[in-house]
Specification:
Layout (H helix, E strand, L loop, with lengths): L3 E5 L4 H12 L3 E6 L7 E4 L5 H12 L6 E4 L14 H29 L2 E6 L12 H21 L4 E8 L5 H14 L3 H11 L8 H12 L10 E4 L7
Helix pairs in contact: 1-7, 2-3, 3-4
Amino acid sequence: MTKTLIISGASSGIGLATAKHFEAAGYRVFNLDIQKGEVGETLVCDMRNHQAVIDAVAQVAAQGSIDLMVSNAGRHLSANVENTSEEDFVSLFELNVKGAFSLTQAVIPHMKAAEKGVIIYIGSDQSTVAKPNSCAYNLSKHALASLAKTTALDYAQFGIRSNLVCPGTIDTPLYQKAIAAYCERSGANLADIHAEEAALQPIGRIGRPEEVAAMVAYLASDEAGFVTGGSFAIDGGYTVG
């Protein structure tokens, strides 16, 4: 029987790599995104709109079970608390946190009815540590760590597992945009900044989206059947110390 993945923000970066991995594994993939993706079926959906998320999940559920949910959609904001406007703070939390909450709330009843399901949140190394000029983003990623844990405890009795994947510096469009913006502000050389970022990782390089997808695949597998409520770093050793 074909399994179904519903994933948010799978049109690029980690989400795209994850969608490709599961499509190759035989899953039917539904991508909730504001832009059409190249993998699976895209349900154009603004994750900040609670009802739109509920409606999109209902469309998927009408076609069969939802075996795996990956909450991936999010954006970065580089700013300390003084430089974070109320508008930016609210917008970021609506996508990074409320979007994950809405997707979870929409999926849970279907997984409960089936008495099985896996939920995976894409957090960040900033789900566990702080970085400079990252006030709102850091708060949002810590919130996902909490959501993964409370969901794990509340729904283990229904055969539902919930975990958090915590990528470090990964070579995605989000990463490229962030360092390009920094270079524009500071006048720094892009290649130099990329090399500096690689040197910050104990393993000596930037991560790849496919490596994060492989971590998600393990947590979604039967081999991880006793794993729930956990946070899993995939950051080249950045948070070890």
